[in-house]
Queue: 2 jobs
Job 1
Amino acid sequence: MISSKDIEQAFSILKPVVHETPLLSSTTLDRKCGNSVFLKAENFQRIGSFKIRGAYNKIAQLSGVDRQRGVVAHSSGNHAQGVALASKLLGVRATIVMPKTSPSNKVEATREYGAEVVFCEDSSDDRERVALELERKHGYVPVPPYDDDQIIAGQGTVGREIAKSLEQLNYLFVPVGGGGLIAGCAVAVKHFHPKVRVIGVETETANDCYQSFRKREIVRIEPPKTIADGMRTQSVGTRNFEIIMNFVDDVVTVTDDQVIAVMKFFLERMKIIVEPTGAVAPAAVYHNVLGISGQTVCAVLSGGNVNPAFLKTIL
Amino acid sequence: MISSKDIEQAFSILKPVVHETPLLSSTTLDRKCGNSVFLKAENFQRIGSFKIRGAYNKIAQLSGVDRQRGVVAHSSGNHAQGVALASKLLGVRATIVMPKTSPSNKVEATREYGAEVVFCEDSSDDRERVALELERKHGYVPVPPYDDDQIIAGQGTVGREIAKSLEQLNYLFVPVGGGGLIAGCAVAVKHFHPKVRVIGVETETANDCYQSFRKREIVRIEPPKTIADGMRTQSVGTRNFEIIMNFVDDVVTVTDDQVIAVMKFFLERMKIIVEPTGAVAPAAVYHNVLGISGQTVCAVLSGGNVNPAFLKTIL
């Protein structure tokens, strides 16, 4: 299990490379939910999501030999762009396995960062199969999306930035896909402020972590239908789950409609673009699912890479 | 003419009320234009634009008697909401004269802040006539949009925040409508960093200040057609012009198409919503109309209140 020292190390590796993203606030939001709310705006991060943090931390710590071998990752979303940009910045060759049904703008963005894209069928199994094949054939080093100590430590720098900026923090809400972000953030925040309550948030159809947390063992669900595509992982990782059980205080869910309402609020009132997954933790705060008041609350707004066509439907 | 002391006073009045908005940056933008660029994000300001600053500074300094009389302003845009919210926060009654053709969301927002809306015909003349009538009939105190010392000093706090955050600043780009924002910012920034070059930006059809600057006298133009509605003022104010001639180094123009390209860049890459007028100064930087390189540059992104229907056409 990683410790706050791993996050400190990640922080010094990432400091010259990633943005320290701002904490946004809104008087209207505070009034609506009766708390003092800060939104950690990782939609303003490089590649438009926190995923650059873990990927860069991982690849930067590869040995010289491993760097020369190149890396491989499979992702239809932000992890692809994170690995692509991190590799480019570090001068490492990257190959990304993407489903052939991936939106063309995501494929282009990944290629723009200099990665080679290899297509596969649209299933988790096939993605893993193709990535493993490339690993074996070319000796590429895999960069996993969440179940990895350096990935977790890298994502944890989000929590470190929050902890250093918000001395009075009472609650931290973090979205849960595979659990990399929440695991890293929980370790970081509890190190500085042990009394902060760390709350994981999922959409209700993608509630594998909610179930796992209650059952105290990893529950695997069928591929869930939800607008929050970062929530479509079927279970959290082993390393992630161990940290969640030790450092996370609760896991709650929101509906897709609650997520859409918050995306609309962000667009119309706060003038920011947030992807559905990025609006999940803010939705738990906006709709005040815990029924708290008078608290200092932070929610991680994890990314902003939303399809323009989908954005139009929201408007 | 106002001095930096007036801006310091405005700053202490505004500090508990307005947001100190962040300076955003983008590696892609830096690379595209060859400079180190910071965007002062006043789209994240309360009411979604810098206009709350001047309005609040003005109304807060009214005498007790004047506050009891109430205020009147005419505006189809952000000044209406600035006066409405400032009045509400200060417990002053506000009446806003708006063209009956104003978008319903702007009318509603103004009413939401507690102001009374009085409709007029859609012409500058009629707006002024109706406002003057209310002033005479009810004794309301007028809150002008830009040609006023306290309004200028309030808007100047934008420049003060920039000057305090960017020690190495070389260029500041500011949009010019009536000239309140640029006048205040120029006084503030030159006080702290006399060598910074302050550049006004207009759209090319709304180039009254560009012409005035070159002719060294106020030029009044026909109501211009431009997507940047904050640029539709026909001339800058007298007080504003005096400051512009003393503190501004140049005025440049961009096309409506250049503004649209930057709005698109903001939406797709930077995940922020900016109104056309708010994208005018950034457009001069993005398209590098001055042909500079290696400089530290700031552009004021003045507001984010864009019509959702228009936003859809951009997407």
Job 2
Amino acid sequence: MGPIPDMMRAVVAEGSGGPEVLRIIERPVPRPGEGEILVRIEAAGVNRPDVLQRQGGYAPPPGASDVLGLEFSGEVVATGPNVHRFRVDAPVMALVSGGGYAEYAIVHESNALPIPAGLSMEEAGAVPETFFTVWTNVFERGRLRRGETLLVHGGTSGIGTTAIQLARAFGATVIATAGTADKCDACTDLGADVAVNYREADFVAAVKEATDGRGADVILDMVGGDYIPRNHEVAAQDGRIVQIAFLQGSKVEVDFRRLMLKRLTHTGSTLRPRSVAEKAGIARALEEKVWPLLAQGRCKPVMDSTFDFDDVAKAHARMDGGEHIGKIVLRL
Amino acid sequence: MGPIPDMMRAVVAEGSGGPEVLRIIERPVPRPGEGEILVRIEAAGVNRPDVLQRQGGYAPPPGASDVLGLEFSGEVVATGPNVHRFRVDAPVMALVSGGGYAEYAIVHESNALPIPAGLSMEEAGAVPETFFTVWTNVFERGRLRRGETLLVHGGTSGIGTTAIQLARAFGATVIATAGTADKCDACTDLGADVAVNYREADFVAAVKEATDGRGADVILDMVGGDYIPRNHEVAAQDGRIVQIAFLQGSKVEVDFRRLMLKRLTHTGSTLRPRSVAEKAGIARALEEKVWPLLAQGRCKPVMDSTFDFDDVAKAHARMDGGEHIGKIVLRL
């Protein structure tokens, strides 16, 4: 490792559109401020919000970098004032609100985490976004408890594969939906008790059957559209529905009488605009509850494919195609 | 007080329709079973669900009496096996899933409560339904905290007047909506910081103005219809909307993107079908947290009018008319 250069390569979207709008440009290497660390990135995860941002549908929150990328792994190469936990050379993974598709990035040390034993740098770069998202939505917001049933849509997405493993590890029954027989097999291989091919079966009927008519206690949904009233229908009494995206639209007619009579809780959240302090709270909970599971190999990021940094457009095309199972990662 | 008779007078709806379908009939006096007390009723509260039941829109839950009435006050006149708390002659108020419009009723002793000092029997008969409803929905389900803002629709209803007082007593800012200037005055007299006449002002704009654009942290809604998207609009970041009825319909188109981006929680509940054990849990919380406030006069049921038992049809006509402010009670 040589000295820290002044300039680095980074990916932005020039205009909006398909993977062809992605450009690798030169940017100054950022300097760590109060409480921040500078990381030389080794792997950067590709996530659905990156695709939405590229398509022009998801502007970075105020103050965030316009460089794509919400998570990475790498080594600390410099620290700002009042950094207490991580030193130069420490391997870390981190969640950021932008700037991950680059050779270097800064992050507040509270939003970085050590890399558990047994995880490669590529795997570590694929962890933060989905693990933070699943923890805060399924376990904190959705309050999933041992013995309950989780229904997770998009079971083979990065979010889905993480939700299946964590829910199983914490003693829940897991039902996943996916769009092909192969994807359904991937879900059950990861620990899902039931996988429903939504192209061939009505997930409402399938979940009711699998739960003796009770329904699902927690539903993690990124589909929206007509899934919203169907989620209300398939939720158990006192069920919680957590909305994290709307791949099929967010505007829909619902009869809220069912929500009242079944005492449902419909909520949702997005991770990116949350404050450093809020993300630090999620990081602490993950390190306490989930990092031991990663270290023991009881859960791990499901890796779909790795692309060279120069092939970032190919990585996005892979996600656009929807054939992937698990995480897509850029290698630097 | 003489011996307990075999038969009693009680009110049922013969068919469904206006107040004229109410009939005072003869019924056997019920006998207290395991853990139950028999109460000679002195006052019975009239509630909106009684009107809905009379209109044919709200059948009693399985196992509940077809005699109208969800709350009453009176004196214990007999006890079943394994009753530990209340003895014959004890004055009590109670929440029931039916049977309140009658000379006698049975209730599990865990769903009865002592009458705080300073409350008349008529006032006591007007307490349970609204206090149980407000406690479980605003404080338990909605998690209203000191310093937060509650928006309560229907501020002069039994529920509304109770919610205004309790929210103020627990340190929240309260904004109420009501349909006339007099009703708005009644809301502020009870402690509401702001009252919005919904016929003259848009409550969304009024609440935003009153909260410097923040919105309401908890919204208690019994209106539904187009109030649902407007509640989503006026809710603060991390706001909770609790739905307890739908006076204007429950089917509506909503853009759930706002729910996700603001991390709202939309939930709701009904009290009547809940188990004796669940109602007992609410009763314990009320006795601990709210009964001292009633005893100190820091809150009390707002009494609209009292009708003789024989005038039950007039009492319902008063509620149908919508002119009332606070509770309507039958006196036995």
